[in-house]
UniProtKB/TrEMBL annotation:
GO cellular component assignments: plasma membrane
GO biological process, one term: CDP-diacylglycerol biosynthetic process
The protein's name in its UniProt record: Phosphatidate cytidylyltransferase
EC number assigned by the record: 2.7.7.41
Subcellular location as annotated: Cell membrane
Catalysed conversion reaction: a 1,2-diacyl-sn-glycero-3-phosphate + CTP + H(+) = a CDP-1,2-diacyl-sn-glycerol + diphosphate
Keyword Lipid metabolism: yes
Source organism of the structure: Arachidicoccus soli
Length: 288
């Protein structure tokens, strides 16, 4: 197939902008980190709702004033996951998050009473969205602030996870392109068994070596565990999002990145791996 120069230029420029924005959001300070994941959370919810409406006509016919509430409850959860010493106009921001979740839950339940049908479907997809999207990004924000004495163990774990996901995707693509022959799953025909296994092994080796040599030798176990989670759970996250897209009958979850897809396309691996890394950081903190 001949290379489409215009498409290649668009994909390259979009990828560069994406990497710059991500690095700025992750590294400048805590507020850029929080803002980045609030934006990602909102974008993921919009794409999730769009695909669910394609999957379920019953959900699509439901009152928008009801189906839009869960993502607002999710925003409340993200506020609750911020450091509890943050205040706005002398009001604890975590308390504001609690109020948004409580009021949102009440409005959602009251709205359900007005729905003559499809209550179960609305509840099912609301809970799925909160678990799939809001829980993950809330825990990512919380992970940013898990510290052991003065060492930011959670922040290191978060950055390691993001880097591991990127490295894993790259390694799986390269290995799959070179030696991949056996299909890994019917859900994602482009993935090969050789690429998935080989890329995952290279990801764990690369992240562990880089972390050991350039970050902190005492955290080798953390680098190994986080990169393993990124390789295994991250791959499952990719397959899960591919399954949702297949059910919805769409190629991409969205188009916020021309040539690369939407928010869920870009963060499908990270979104499923985050709760596991958060659990590892909490256990590490508890027993250290």
């Amino acid at each position: 197939m001949a290379l489409n120069k215009k498409t290649f230029q668009t994909r390259t420029l979009t990828a560069i902008i994406f990497v710059v924005v991500m690095l700025c959001g992750l590294l400048i300070n805590s507020w850029t980190f929080y803002t980045l994941f609030f934006i990602i959370h909102w974008g993921c919810w919009i794409e999730y709702e769009k695909m669910i409406k394609l999957i379920s006509p019953e959900y699509a016919r439901a009152d928008l004033r009801v189906t839009s509430i869960p993502k607002l409850i999710g925003c409340g959860f993200l506020l609750f996951c911020l450091p509890h010493d943050i205040k706005i106009l002398n009001l604890n921001i975590y308390f504001l998050g609690e109020m948004i979740m409580l009021i949102g839950a009440i409005k959602f339940l009251l709205g359900l009473f007005k729905e003559r049908e499809n209550k179960v479907i609305i509840i099912r997809y609301a809970i799925l969205g909160l678990l799939y999207i809001s829980l993950s990004w809330g825990l990512m924000i919380n992970l940013r602030n898990i510290n052991f004495i003065v060492f930011p163990i959670g922040f290191v774990a978060a950055l390691t996870l993001v880097a591991s996901v990127w490295i894993n995707d790259t390694m799986q693509y390269i290995v799959g392109s070179v030696i991949g022959k056996t299909p890994f799953s019917t859900i994602s025909p482009n993935k090969t068994l050789e690429g998935t296994i080989g890329g995952s092994i290279l990801c764990v080796l690369a992240v562990s070596i880089i972390g050991y040599l350039f970050v902190n030798k005492n955290l080798l176990h953390l680098f190994i565990i986080v990169s393993l989670i990124a390789a295994i759970i991250g791959t499952l996250g990719d397959l899960l999002e591919s399954k949702i897209k297949r059910l919805a009958g769409v190629k991409d979850s969205g188009n916020f990145m021309p040539g690369h897809g939407g928010f869920l396309d870009r963060f499908d691996s990270l979104i499923l791996a985050t709760p596991f890394v958060w659990a590892v950081a909490v256990i590490w903190f508890s027993f250290s």
